[in-house]
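Here comes a specimen:
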Amino acid sequence: MAEVQNTNVEEIKTTFWQKVADSPYMMVGLMDGQHSEPLTAQLDKDQVDTLFFFVGKDNRAAKGGPAMVQFVSKGHDFFACLAGNASIQNDRALIDKLWDKQVEAWFPGGKEDPNLALLRIDIESAELWETDVSISGRVKMLFGGTITASESSSHAKVATTAEGSPA
């Protein structure tokens, strides 16, 4: 499945997870025709290719199924589109592990809030783009030159975002 363009696959996977940790805001939606909505990802370093989101049980994604997640980094220099499957996983130990003050602000009843649900998205494939225009590319932009792919970005289609695994 790996399709690579001017990319060190391991490097782009590592960069992806670093960017998500730095700014965990993503657009999440089921592939059922409804619009995506912004949610804050909770990362569990023990579970690769998995994203977690605290949502209300009445959230449109809580019913689960095929899902799509879009990510744009804080610096607008990294983009990702992730396909996977969404499901509710209300494992109390995992809720305790991922819980923080930001989540608590959304659920006044705390971990016992009757509307609390932990949405799990298992990533099945991903497309990752890193845009980092080189110095020579920036000079060309200033003077109207043509930028080559090697001067502008990295791109990879991967079956797993797990670091250290084959693409």
The chain has four helices and eight strands.
